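The freezer alarm interrupted the setup, so I double-checked each line after restarting. Inputs confirmed:
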Amino acid sequence: MTKVAVQFTLNDEEQNEFVDSGSTLLAVLRGKLGLYSTKAGCHQGSCGACTVIIDGEPRLSCLTLAQRCTGRKITTIEGLTRDGALHPLQQAFMEGFAAQCGFCTPGMILAAKSLLDRNQSPSRDDVIDAISGNICRCTGYEPIIAAVLAAAEQMRAEMKKSA
Amino acid sequence: MSVMLEAARQIRLVPALQAKGAMIVAGGTLAVAELNYGQGADGTLIILDRLGLDRIAVVGKKATFGAMVTMAEIARDRRLKFLHPVCNSIGGPAVRAMATIGGNLFAPAPYGDMAASLLALDAEITIHDGKSAKKYPIEVFFRQRKKLERCLVVSVSFTLPASGSFRYSKAVRRKPVSASVVTIAALLPRRGGKVVGARIALGAMGSHAIRAYKAEAALEGRSLDSATIAAAAAQIAEDASPADDAYASAWYRRQVVPIHLARLLAA
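Predicted 3D structure, all chains:
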């Protein structure tokens, strides 16, 4: 198997790796970097469990070739926690019982984060659209939608306080 | 699995690589999914990121999309609001950020909702065969799609529709987005209240997007009253050959397409 060099920023840290040519970002994250929060689900873009954020947009790491990530900024859910403090989305998912088995949760949270990064006051329909590519088979979607809206409210309150 | 990535540096060199068995990867939503399932797993993948095919141009009444323009980019473009419902019906935001116009033209049923819309819009597809660029009416492109897989789609152009003349509907099993049960894109230009030059395209009703010629004929020269709508709805599946898949049976698709067309025309 031919190895190729890739360089990208992962959760604010520079990564320089030799990876198998043709490998997906998902395979690199899980198999080489040991970041198991990015889940391997359907491998065909249907479930959203492998969602990461690349250059501010949600992307499916199972369909993203690692070599195409050179020079890009990638965020996985490991990058959301700061100094041990959960991101408001993580906190809201926990408090609102928006996770059951947890398999879809990292993808759901990152899909929601990419929405909240550009829209701090999303409507319910905005949230539904943001997570429309992410499948949950445990909770149903209501607690998830409620958690995203609660996190948005919390983030707005924090911004107001710090302004 | 032994795969090599090659970044194409010139459009004209891509078809020669394809002739040697290399596979184009545009957004990756189709090609990489195939790789993940062991199809086309050995060989060269060509990526098109450096060819400048990611631009949207709107000049006068003509829009041109480079083949690498994504659904998300179209959905952000305020000049193309009539296409936003089409983009937003495809995948979730992550798929839209990756899926390209060029890839959608090759998407197998029940995918290819944008391709159906481009068929209704009478788009022209520019293809490079390694020697020169050639333009194909989209219907010709679909008829020759298998053969043209060995060429590179460079861009897609169409005339912007008159305000309110483009309509779109997609029936899905799981709202808000899923693969299509039936997709309908309709261009309904009107003169003096009568439909003139209607183009109705169907997705998931054949191996690729198809025109519903008989339904179009039922609309021609008529106003969109209930009798005309009923006549068009009665003809809508006549040109179709849907398949059974995980989303719907062919029988079900034939049953529901008249209902969705009637709703679309009456809207």
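Quick read of the result. Chain B touches chain A through 28 residues (CB under 8 Å).
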